[in-house]
Design a protein that fits this description.
By secondary structure, the protein is mainly alpha-helical. The chain has 4 domains: 212 residues, Multidrug efflux transporter AcrB transmembrane fold; 123 residues, Alpha-Beta Plaits; 97 residues, no CATH class; 38 residues. The chain is built from 21 helices and 7 strands. Helix 10 packs parallel to helix 12 and helix 11 runs antiparallel to helix 14.
Length: 606
């Protein structure tokens, strides 16, 4: 083996002297620090919110923070009560709603819908066309009543059609859905839903899980089986989904880390042909990874989605240092050197080259810290710290463990055979080397030619994980959605305006979106130019607004005319401009046209 360089042997001797003198102390201190780091690393949470991946001064994050400050949490927690009995469901749900409403982290609970305001002000929500139709019908009814009451000889004795404005008639006339239940229920009351609005976000997994645990305790305290043997309570919406996603992510992290440790251990056993290398290499490596995670906890207190598997990543990129050091030590011992000499030769050669590799790798990862994308920058900084720690553990803790192992379990690798004369490389199959080289060059050229086709994924929705569900679970989810409303969302879109003018601007844009045709909507979603909406055909009776026409005949007032004259006048067509000229003062053009319409006219203008 090559002798240590004079430039590095002094450093190697000093490190080995320290290791040979205090091997047990170095190991104990390392284990204590690793234990303390593990306690801090356990408090490290994974934040799966996509906003934490973006710069904090980006417009989307700023708007989200503003919405949270001004509006608060806008996600709902759905508590679903199921049993075959509607009465038992309502009775238990009412008691549970009262208990949940007392939780300090619940803003409000909606169990029974209060529709009195909407019943009293229903016309405020009616479309303009419906309001004009009702207005026309009222005018017709008033005119008919006046004709009948003011006929001195009773010549206008036609029966007046009843103006039915009852709820049932209006729902039938305008094809409105049946009146909803006062409760959020479906399947004839077998499913009842309680809507709760927590103060915290569903992405705050710690508080969300604690809230669900408290509600579980409240459910258990109310004894649902005493109300009905088959009564069950479950959760739906964003809080339930995010909690399950968190548990799945934690399980994936645990399983991924365990798989990484198993694969690394098997690799070490196969390469070093024994189990001695497993504790020697993995102990310092795990300690370095734990300290790196503790650094992450005190630095940012959380890991984003990119850094969630940081522990397994650190194991993979940090194991090289220990392998190089231990392999060189084994070779030096095989040359017949004692422990001190083998350690000095190892650190003076493999230690220096390994340090250069660690420095370059750590620097490369550290440069990622300047990236605006927080997912990459956080990963780069933590990985850089982990690499540096893994290297120092490989050149300090690993040699200390070697010394201790040599005292209780001496390593006696077989001595190498006498050196043979250097021989040239075999040339039995030169075409294999040429073919391999050609394939590598061809692959590199093809990759270089397609490098321009590589693009970043900008749709963050692709990062979302879909939970695997069974047909029964999907059917149960549809039931709760029917109870709260098929088109209701637990995470609605919110627009915040600073002035009434901005509110009107937002309203106009939303109205324009609602009025889009199917073709226009598909073009908008695809990011293509929106085609214009086809113009409606002009009505044949419409005329230019500035055209002068004769004034419209006066409306029949019921005096001195017979019924035949009234019917004849009503049957005559009325000029559109004349209708506009006869409109009441202060009304809109549409309202004026509706007011000037003959009593027996149809609904064509509506």
């Amino acid at each position: 083996m090559r002798e240590p360089s004079t430039l590095t042997d002094s450093f190697a001797r000093r490190v080995v002297a320290l290791v040979m003198r205090f091997p047990a102390l170095i190991l104990v201190v390392t284990l204590v620090v690793a234990a303390l780091a593990a306690m801090s690393a356990r408090q490290l949470k994974v934040d799966s919110r996509l906003k934490v991946l973006l710069p904090q001064d980006s417009p989307s994050v700023v708007h989200l923070d503003r919405m949270t400050a001004e509006v608060g949490n806008h996600e709902d927690l759905y508590i679903v009560v199921r049993s075959p009995s509607r009465a038992d469901n309502l009775a238990f749900a009412e008691r549970l709603a009262d208990a949940v409403a007392k939780d300090p982290e619940i803003r409000f609970v909606v169990f029974r819908r209060d529709t009195r305001f909407f019943d009293d002000n229903v016309l405020l929500y009616a479309p303009l066309a419906d309001l004009l139709d009702i207005r026309r019908r009222v005018i017709e009814r008033i005119q008919a009543e006046i004709r009948r009451e003011l006929s001195p000889l009773g010549e206008y004795d036609k029966p007046v059609e009843d103006l039915d404005l009852s709820e049932d008639e209006l729902r039938s006339r305008y094809d409105l859905p049946d009146r909803p239940s006062d409760y959020f229920e479906t399947d004839e009351g077998r499913v009842v839903v309680i809507v709760a609005r927590p103060t915290g976000s569903s992405t705050d997994f710690t508080s969300a899980a604690a809230l669900l645990e408290r509600i579980d305790g409240q459910v258990a305290g109310l004894n649902p089986t005493a109300q009905h043997p088959a009564l069950t309570v479950e959760y739906a919406g964003g809080y339930s989904k995010n909690t399950r996603l968190t548990r799945r992510l934690q399980a994936d992290v645990a399983s991924g880390t365990a798989a990484a440790l198993i694969i690394l251990a098997l690799t070490l056993v196969i390469y070093f042909r024994g189990i001695r290398a497993v504790p020697l290499i993995l102990t310092p490596l795990v300690a370095a990874a734990l300290v790196a995670l503790a650094f992450a906890f005190y630095w940012v207190s959380y890991l984003n989605l990119v850094g969630a598997f940081m522990f397994a990543v650190l194991l993979g990129i940090g194991i090289d240092f220990g392998i190089h050091v231990l392999a060189r030590y084994r070779d030096e011992r095989g040359e017949g050197l004692d422990v001190r000499e083998a350690l000095e030769a190892t650190l003076a050669t493999a230690g220096v080259s390994t340090g250069a590799g660690a420095a370059s790798t750590a620097l490369a990862f550290a440069l990622l810290g300047i990236a605006e994308f927080k997912g990459i920058s956080q990963f780069g900084v933590i990985a850089s710290v982990g690499i540096v720690l893994a290297f120092f553990c490989a050149v300090l803790v690993l040699p200390a463990m070697m010394v201790l192992f040599e005292r209780v379990w001496p390593w006696r690798p077989p001595k190498r055979a006498a050196k043979h004369e250097r021989r040239s490389l075999p040339r039995r199959f030169p075409w294999v080397s040429a073919l391999a080289c050609a394939l590598v060059l061809a692959g590199a050229a093809a990759s270089l030619a397609r490098v321009g086709d590589v693009a970043f994924e900008t749709d963050l929705r692709t990062f979302e994980v879909e939970l695997e569900t069974t047909d029964a679970e999907r059917a149960r989810a549809l039931q709760y959605q029917e109870a709260v409303g098929e088109h209701e969302s637990s995470t609605p879109a919110i627009a915040i305006a600073d002035s009434p003018e901005e509110t009107a601007f937002v309203f106009r844009h939303l109205r324009a979106l609602v009025d889009l045709s199917e073709e226009q909507f598909e073009a908008l979603v695809a990011g293509e130019p929106v085609p214009p909406k086809p113009r409606a055909a002009a009505k044949p009776e419409a005329k230019a607004a500035d055209q002068k026409t004769a004034p419209a005949p006066a409306k029949d007032d019921g005096w001195g005319d017979d019924d035949d004259d009234d019917d004849a006048k009503a049957a005559e067509p009325v000029d559109a401009t004349a209708e506009g000229a006869a409109k009441p003062e202060g009304s809109t053009p549409d309202e004026g046209a509706a007011a000037a319409k003959p009593a027996s006219g149809g609904d064509d203008d509506e």
